[in-house]
Every structure is written in structure tokens, then in C-alpha cells.
């Protein structure tokens, strides 16, 4: 028993580089040799799916790319999943893309490149990339009031007035659904407070795992039509639309990463209790 | 005094009141101001704030280099990177598209010289091509352009690496700091573990009966800690294990009658097969309170939601109070007062 306790205490003071190596392996190995794990959609992801599914035919859908490269692995699969879901039904939806983050523009360009390889989309007929404008919540408020004062040209500097699919689009009321892929400020909060609430347009969101706690009250109150929570949320959405992608592949890595962290927490606590008991004893 | 204090306070008070009362006054003019003009003013100020931010960043980094403060070498890298991106973004187009109309092929070059060279080579091989420089503004996002190349190959990997490092630090920090020192810390620890495991697919593979057996063992440890009686621990653990087993045998769709019938009608092998399924066919998600994905969902939607909502209401009230302080001129930190 003493021997076992000594081993646990030794594990309790292991060098942090050992932890780094184990975490690295736990993430790397499942990425190199993929493992199939069952994905179970949560109610909040199901709500997003249902909200997208219930958009009327020939709708205008606004997608906001409010994230950058750092959170791309978590949020990019969500925006891709939403775009795939919107387009796969072939129900005549048009996609309008905005960005509250400067690097969101590049994320949007990348998403469009991927989607264009799967669907034969025509710019300015099926989608328009409006681009980035600085101003955070003021941009959302401006869009709710008069979109044409915020965007006079699209991201490629084409005048809005000359883009066919912008005809009749004057503010957020002209959209039937909105989605924000959000990694922080500005993002989901601003879209709820200044975009969805004043106009009543249904809004769903995909956020990083760390943001979910703060955003959940909006989901429960119905101000947000569901939320895709971090990479598991993205994987669940990929499962729901039956298009496995990078998020489902990443779930094994995240699972094992979490498992290693939990094991180290348990070991650390066992070592702590043994040391405490010994100190009390002597 | 008037210019530096009273006029800024009066401006903030006036526009603050106008924006606030605009929600309550039925006036098209005020509504248009709040919805359109004020937000556009904000956008313009925000655009200029980017310049101010950049200047401030440069000032701080230059000072650090001049004073040779610790880590000044990093400031040199920051300054050089800043000017490189600034020059490339503002003064270099960096995207010249060579278009071959007949073949519907496009390729982008960083410089006009490289694009012209490519066109000449194509001309030598009998292919007609034209050069279209990317429009200013659109040049930063043109696929194959210099700025987009920098974003994809420098900024993106650096940014992703910084964020990915968090996983290692979170692991190391939770290993060292996440200790069950008291009741609150233990609660936090348990909730954290349930969320971490229950949120990922691995959690849905852990049946509720394993959690219940583990709880029985934990109960045994607690009883041992407080009562120091081996007999009592044995009774508690034995009863607990038997209770959990009995519960799951009850929850299993196979019944004693099925096993009896299998032995009678199908013989010994068939009987043992059904008996085996009685132990292996236990439901993994019942009772749901002990199933990790269901438990983490409950933590998210009940206790977490209550806390998050309380914080949100608190923040909301704080914003109201701070806004009123600005409107009434009580908050003057923006003009340099403490």
C-alpha cells in the first residue's frame, strides 16, 4: 500500500513537460489514425438544425463570420455545416455574408472556396460577400436600420446597387434567418441585442466551448434558436446533416485530450490527499 | 478648463440623453439620428481609433527598444512586422491576375514583373493572356495575392499555434491547481470533470452503471474516513454493489421468465446465452442522472444557466448605472479625471 501511495505521490509532482508530451500524443495519435466515436446530437444543436430546416423556400440567409484563425478549428466546421445544410436542400436560398472581425473576411473567403468546390455557386446570384466593417455592435445596429449605409460596396469593391441579389435588401428585416459563427466580442451577444431582438429575425449561433456558458440564457429564452457549442457542436451538426467532416474527425483527439487532463486531475488530487495525510500524521 | 472639461462633459451628456430618450420619444428625426447617423459616427470614430491604436502600439514598442527594456528584441520584431504589413497592405498591390480567356485559367502573381514574364512565356508558346491588377481594397483578399499569402502562411499558423498552446497550459494548470481543498472546490472539480468527459463522444460510451459502481466505492471511502469501521465499510459497499446490480437487472429488458423459458425450451446453451445477455444488455443511459452526457447537459442548462443569468442581470444593471453616471457628468475618467 505504501509502495502504491509513493507511486501516486510521484505522479502528483510529475514535470509539466511530461504532461505536455502526453497531451500532445493524446491529440496527435487519434488525428493520425482516426477513431470512430458515436456522436450524439444535443438538444441545442438539434434546435439549430430545426431552425435552418424550417427556413421558408427562397429565403435570404445572413451568415456572419465573427472569428479568426485561432478559433477556426472550432467554428469553421460550423459555418461550413450551416452553408452545406442551407444549400443541400436546393430550396433557392441566397447567402449574404458579413464579418464583424477583420480576419473573418478571410475565413469567409476560405469557406466559400470549400463550398464552391461542392456546389456550383455563382457570386452575386447565389451569394454575396459583403465583407468587414469596423464598429462592432454599431455595425449590427446599422444593419438592422439601413444596410446600404453600412455597406456601399461588397468585399470585392463592387457597388451594392449593381449587385442583382441585393435588390430589395435594405436591412435585417429582409432576411429570414441569421447565423453567427462567433469567437467572442463582437459576436453572438451583439447579434442578439442589436440584430435579432429588435427585428425578430430568427438567429442561431455557433460559438467556442468557452462562450457557451454565457450564451445559454439566450438559448433558453428563445432569443437564440439553438447553439452549436464548440467542436462537439460542430461534430453534432455534421452528424445531423450527414456530412462527416473535420469536426467529427477531431472529436477523438478532443475526447482523448480531455481524458488525459481528467486523469491528471485525479492523480494530482490523490497525491494531494496522500501528502496531506502524511503531513498531518507526522 | 471650459474646453477640456465642461464642453466634453456637455457633449457626452447631451448625446447620451438623446440616445437614451430616443427610445421613448416618438420622433422620426431622433430615431433616424440614433439608428443611422449616430451609428455611422461611431463607425467613423472606430475607424480612426484603429489608427490611434496603431500609433499607440508603435509608441510603446519604440520606447521599449530605445530604453532597452527586457524583451526589447521582441519589440523590434513587432515594429518590423508592423511596417512590413503596413507597406504591403497600403502601398503594394501584390496581386496581378494573369488570365487566359480561352482556357478559363487564372493565376495570380505578387509583382507586375512576374506577371508580365508569365504572359511573355505564354505568348512564346502561342497562348494569349492578359494581366488584370487586383482592385485596391480587394487586393488584400485576392487569392494568390501577397497579402492573402501572408495571412495564410504567417498569421494563420502563428495565431493557431498561440491558441493551441492553451491546451497544454490548461492541462498543466488544472493538474497543479485543481484540488478538492474544500466543499466548493470539490463541487467545481466534479462539475468540471463531468463537463469535460460528458461533452465529448467518449462520455457517451461510459454507461451509467459504471458511474453508480464508482459512486458506491466513493461512498465506501467516505464511510471509512468518518467511521473507521471495516465491517461498516464492507456492509455499505456490498449492499451498494448488490443494489446497483439488482437495479440494472431490473432495468434490463430480459426477465427471469425469459431465462427460465430459454433453459426449458432451448436447452443449456441457449439458456446461458440469454443469461449472459441479462448481464451484458444493461441500458447505458439509465437512470439518466448517472449518464454523463445527460448530467453535463443538466449542469449546463440548470445551475450554470442560473449563474450566467444572474451575472448578465448584474452586468446590465452595472451598464445602466455607468451610463447614467456618464450622462450626469459624474464619470469623468474619459477626460483624464480619476
Description:
The complex is a heterodimer of chains A (282) and B (338). Chain A is an alpha/beta fold and 282 residues long. Chain A has a single domain, classed as 3-Layer(aba) Sandwich (Rossmann fold). Chain A is elongated, with a radius of gyration of 23 Å. The model of chain A has no long low-confidence stretch (mean pLDDT 92). Chain B folds into three domains: 84 residues, no CATH class; 59 residues; 131 residues, no CATH class. Chain B contains twelve helices and three strands; from the N terminus they run H-H-H-E-E-H-E-H-H-H-H-H-H-H-H. A three-stranded antiparallel sheet of chain B has the order 2-1-3, with helices on one face. In chain B, a hairpin with a 4-residue loop joins strand 1 and strand 2. Chains A and B meet through helix 2, helix 5, helix 6, helix 9 and helix 10 of A and helix 2, helix 5, helix 6, helix 7 and helix 11 of B.
Structure, briefly:
The complex is a heterodimer of chains A (282) and B (338). Chain A has 282 residues and is α/β, with parallel strands linked by helices.
Amino acid at each position: 500500500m505504501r509502495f502504491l501511495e509513493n507511486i501516486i505521490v510521484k505522479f502528483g509532482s510529475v514535470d509539466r513537460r511530461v504532461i505536455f508530451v502526453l497531451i500532445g500524443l493524446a491529440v496527435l495519435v487519434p488525428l493520425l489514425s482516426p477513431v470512430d466515436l458515436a456522436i450524439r446530437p444535443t438538444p441545442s444543436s438539434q434546435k439549430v438544425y430545426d431552425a435552418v430546416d424550417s427556413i421558408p423556400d427562397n429565403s435570404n440567409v445572413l451568415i456572419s463570420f465573427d472569428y479568426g484563425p485561432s478559433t477556426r478549428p472550432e467554428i469553421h466546421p460550423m459555418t461550413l455545416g450551416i452553408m452545406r445544410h442551407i444549400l443541400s436542400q436546393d430550396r433557392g436560398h441566397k447567402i449574404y455574408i458579413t464579418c464583424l472581425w477583420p480576419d473573418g473576411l478571410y475565413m469567409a473567403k476560405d469557406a466559400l472556396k470549400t463550398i464552391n468546390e461542392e456546389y456550383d455557386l455563382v457570386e452575386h446570384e447565389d451569394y454575396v460577400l459583403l465583407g468587414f466593417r469596423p464598429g462592432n455592435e454599431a455595425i449590427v445596429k446599422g444593419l438592422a436600420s439601413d444596410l446600404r449605409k453600412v455597406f456601399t460596396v461588397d468585399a470585392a469593391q463592387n457597388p451594392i446597387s449593381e449587385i442583382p441579389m441585393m435588390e430589395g435588401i435594405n436591412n435585417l428585416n429582409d432576411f429570414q434567418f441569421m447565423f453567427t459563427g462567433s469567437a467572442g466580442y463582437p459576436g453572438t451577444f451583439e447579434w442578439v441585442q442589436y440584430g435579432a431582438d429588435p427585428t425578430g429575425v430568427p438567429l442561431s449561433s455557433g460559438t467556442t466551448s468557452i462562450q457557451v456558458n454565457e450564451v445559454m440564457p439566450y438559448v433558453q429564452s428563445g432569443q437564440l434558436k439553438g447553439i452549436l457549442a464548440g467542436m462537439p457542436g460542430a461534430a453534432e451538426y455534421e452528424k445531423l446533416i450527414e456530412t462527416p467532416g473535420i469536426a467529427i474527425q477531431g472529436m477523438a483527439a478532443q475526447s482523448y485530450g480531455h481524458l488525459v487532463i481528467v486523469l491528471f486531475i485525479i492523480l494530482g488530487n490523490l497525491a494531494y490527499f496522500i501528502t496531506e495525510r502524511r503531513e498531518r500524521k507526522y | 478648463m471650459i474646453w477640456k472639461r465642461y464642453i466634453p462633459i456637455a457633449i457626452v451628456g447631451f448625446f447620451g440623453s438623446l440616445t437614451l430618450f430616443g427610445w421613448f420619444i416618438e420622433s422620426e428625426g431622433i430615431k433616424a439620428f440614433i439608428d443611422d447617423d449616430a451609428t455611422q459616427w461611431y463607425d467613423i470614430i472606430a475607424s480612426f481609433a484603429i489608427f490611434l491604436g496603431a500609433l499607440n502600439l508603435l509608441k510603446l514598442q519604440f520606447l521599449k527598444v530605445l530604453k532597452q527594456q527586457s524583451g526589447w528584441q521582441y519589440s523590434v520584431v513587432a515594429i518590423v512586422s508592423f511596417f512590413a504589413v503596413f507597406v504591403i497592405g497600403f502601398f503594394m498591390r501584390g496581386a496581378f491576375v494573369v488570365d487566359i480567356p480561352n482556357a478559363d485559367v487564372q493565376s495570380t502573381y505578387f509583382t507586375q514583373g512576374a506577371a508580365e514574364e508569365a504572359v511573355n512565356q505564354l505568348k512564346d508558346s502561342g497562348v494569349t493572356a492578359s494581366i488584370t491588377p487586383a482592385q485596391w481594397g480587394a487586393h488584400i483578399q485576392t487569392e494568390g495575392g501577397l497579402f492573402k499569402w501572408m495571412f495564410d502562411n504567417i498569421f494563420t499558423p502563428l495565431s493557431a499555434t498561440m491558441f493551441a498552446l492553451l491546451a497544454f497550459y490548461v492541462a498543466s494548470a488544472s493538474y497543479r491547481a485543481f484540488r478538492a481543498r474544500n466543499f466548493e472546490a470539490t463541487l467545481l472539480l466534479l462539475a468540471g470533470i463531468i463537463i469535460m468527459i460528458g461533452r465529448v463522444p467518449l462520455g457517451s460510451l461510459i454507461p451509467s452503471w459504471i458511474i453508480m459502481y464508482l459512486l458506491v466505492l466513493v461512498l465506501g471511502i467516505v464511510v471509512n474516513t468518518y467511521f473507521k469501521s471495516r465491517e461498516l465499510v464492507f456492509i455499505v459497499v456490498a449492499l451498494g454493489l448488490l443494489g446497483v446490480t439488482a437495479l440494472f437487472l431490473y432495468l434490463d429488458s430480459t426477465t427471469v421468465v425469459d431465462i427460465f423459458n430459454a433453459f426449458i425450451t432451448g436447452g443449456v446453451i441457449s439458456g446461458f446465452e440469454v443469461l449472459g445477455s441479462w448481464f451484458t444488455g444493461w441500458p447505458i443511459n439509465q437512470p439518466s442522472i448517472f449518464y454523463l452526457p445527460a448530467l453535463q447537459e443538466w449542469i449546463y442548462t440548470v445551475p450554470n444557466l442560473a449563474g450566467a443569468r444572474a451575472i448578465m442581470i448584474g452586468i446590465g444593471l452595472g451598464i445602466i448605472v455607468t451610463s447614467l453616471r456618464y450622462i450626469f457628468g459624474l464619470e469623468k475618467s474619459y477626460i483624464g479625471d480619476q
